[in-house]
């Protein structure tokens, strides 16, 4: 396997935590890594190879403009490494929009893919994951794009989680086929058509609602990037608010602290499953290469997990599986 | 004050829990109530007056069709009671779409209102509420409707929560003004225009994201009914999933149960603030009368709380405040 390219300058905790995670991933997983970073990364990198770049696209920079203008940026160089066969995958915790734009412009799309989509695995508290896509790549979508998202999402859920025949739901505001806006009604028709998900190995189960996202009633939830991003961030915000109030309650008195200590062995697995460090990040599906989008707050553990996901996707032939899934 | 009309046959636990709640509301709040129900409700109603209706619109019935065809249904009769000056407000835990359609068709809109919207108060775990609208009345929206939702939401937050100058945010997928789809970009321009929220007494603070919904950084969050409904149900589902895993952890062993008992005094206020029984339901803003939409699972306490909200809205002159807020 070719090395996995990691953007050393992307993310709130870059470069130290990113490079630290890269070193850990190399040692713990035995995966070859190549860093893409500015010259000042070199002293941190130890014996990891470094592709040097002179620029860093800021977290809040305009994605399209930055990628067009900053041709020697770490993100653009990382995507080029995949395109040119010097890396098997790219990982960045930097500017999400610029990561997508770099991957799209340098790697190109899988033949037949209309638009790439961000697939985000949501940890279900009772166990397992629900794959939500598009989680933010395309604010406005056409019905046939949603069909392709469903096909790619099903192939992803099969490859990533070993689900034999993933159940695919269309995110709407009621279970009946007629519910939702024009986009949902048209997409429903395409998804319900005979054979729509056959090549992808998935099964359409109809509309699902926001409340189904964290249940084990559905494996892949399809929506436009605006709605998907709002749903994802609403969940993240809700969990964070609730957990921080819980921690307050647990620390309210000596008695409460002692009681919370007793409960910790039960609560830690739950807490750990919700921690973004452990999900390994989202994946940009539909570009002609593996591209992992990590959380901006990624630390070392998140990087290790992202490398694990990237390795699995490369070894499992994810890009070929996606190409096969959208073939109609 | 005229009596408050309650749909005795609406909701999963109707009529028993609804009528029980109506009796409690009358006794505990000293508010006059009139039930609207089928003849078999009479034996439960005690000395509460009953407007008889012969039909009940099912929870999953098509709203538009039902309201047009079932003219002697409890929902249509409740809305007529408000229209005809026999009641000051209507409350239903039944079919949400049919509740909206009944109110809209029988009460009509406040002069100048383009579309009514469902305003749902979200309990913020650290205290207070964020008002989300539209939470599901209009799956597809125009930019100028969102402007009116902002105006009505600000007036509602002032009247309901006594917030002097509510901070109004536009729900999008990034904080910068250009973020989001065409609807968001156009709505942003209208909301940012000088004086847009002056009559409503609110202040536009720009785009907000899903993660801001349960924080105290914003008082009113404006969006289309599709996105709002998905965000609301995602939060509800996420909270439910997390709370049920917590309860599992709390009951995992005798030791855990004992520790959880110690923490209960700290956790109950949080649990209670998240319980839909305690929010009093959502309000349909923009129709020419007070209309409270309660959760389908409403029990007695939810009915009492809904009556409390309805009374406050009537006594506080909510409908006039909304009319003033949208005047430009």
Indicate the topology.
Two copies of one chain form a homodimer.
Chain A: E1 4-7, H1 16-29, E2 33-37, E3 50-52, H2 63-69, H3 74-83, E4 89-92, H4 96-107, E5 117-123, E6 129-133, H5 143-161, E7 167-171, H6 182-192, E8 203-208, E9 220-222, H7 225-250, H8 254-274, E10 282-285, E11 290-293, H9 300-315, H10 318-326
Parallel strand pairs in A: 1-2, 1-4, 2-3, 4-11, 6-9, 7-8, 7-9
Antiparallel strand pairs in A: 5-6, 5-10, 10-11
Our measurement of the CA-to-CA distance between the termini of chain A, rounded to an integer number of angstroms, reads: 30 Å
SSE pattern of chain A, N- to C-terminal: EHEEHHEHEEHEHEEHHEEHH
Q: Which of globular, elongated, flat, extended, rod-shaped describes the shape of chain A? A: globular
Contiguous low-pLDDT stretches of chain A (5 residues minimum) are none
Quaternary structure state of the chains depicted: homodimer
Largest β sheet strand count, sense and barrel closure of chain A: 11 strands, mixed
Rg of chain A, Cα atoms, Å: 20 Å
**Spatial order of the strands forming the largest sheet of chain A:** 3-2-1-4-11-10-5-6-9-7-8
Strand content of chain A: 15-25%
Helix content of chain A: 40-55%
Q: What is the number of helical segments of chain A per DSSP (H or I, 4+ residues)?
A: 10
Structural class of chain A: alpha/beta
Characterize this entry briefly.
By secondary structure, the first copy, chain A, is an alpha/beta fold.
């Amino acid at each position: 396997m070719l090395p996995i390219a990691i953007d050393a300058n992307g993310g709130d905790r870059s470069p130290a935590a990113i490079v630290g995670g890269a070193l850990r991933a190399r040692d713990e997983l035995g995966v070859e890594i190549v860093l893409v970073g500015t010259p000042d990364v070199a002293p941190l990198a130890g014996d990891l190879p470094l592709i040097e770049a002179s620029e860093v696209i800021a977290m809040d920079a305009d994605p399209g403009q930055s990628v067009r203008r900053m041709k020697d940026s770490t993100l653009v160089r990382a995507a080029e490494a995949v395109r040119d066969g010097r890396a098997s995958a790219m990982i960045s915790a930097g500017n999400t929009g610029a990561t997508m734009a770099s991957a799209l412009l340098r790697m190109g799309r899988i033949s037949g893919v209309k638009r790439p989509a961000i697939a985000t695995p949501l940890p279900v508290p009772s166990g397992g994951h629900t794959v939500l896509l598009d989680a933010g790549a395309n604010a406005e979508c056409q019905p046939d794009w949603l069909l392709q998202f469903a096909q790619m999402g099903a192939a992803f859920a099969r490859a990533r989680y070993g689900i034999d025949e993933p159940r695919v739901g269309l995110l709407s505001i009621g279970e009946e086929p007629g519910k939702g806006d024009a986009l949902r009604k048209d997409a429903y028709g395409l998804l319900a058509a005979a054979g729509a998900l056959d090549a992808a190995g998935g099964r359409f189960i109809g509309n699902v609602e926001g409340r189904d996202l964290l249940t084990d009633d559905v494996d892949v939830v399809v929506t436009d990037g605006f709605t998907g991003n709002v749903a994802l961030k609403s969940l993240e915000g809700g969990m964070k608010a609730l957990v921080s109030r819980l921690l307050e309650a647990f620390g309210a008195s000596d008695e409460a602290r002692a009681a919370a200590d007793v409960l910790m062995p039960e609560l830690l697995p739950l807490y750990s499953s919700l921690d973004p460090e452990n999900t390994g990040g989202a994946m940009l599906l539909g570009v002609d290469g593996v591209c992992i989008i990590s959380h901006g707050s990624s630390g070392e553990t998140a990087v290790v997990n992202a490398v694990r996901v990237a390795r699995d996707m490369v070894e499992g032939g994810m890009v070929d599986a996606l190409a096969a899934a959208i073939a109609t």
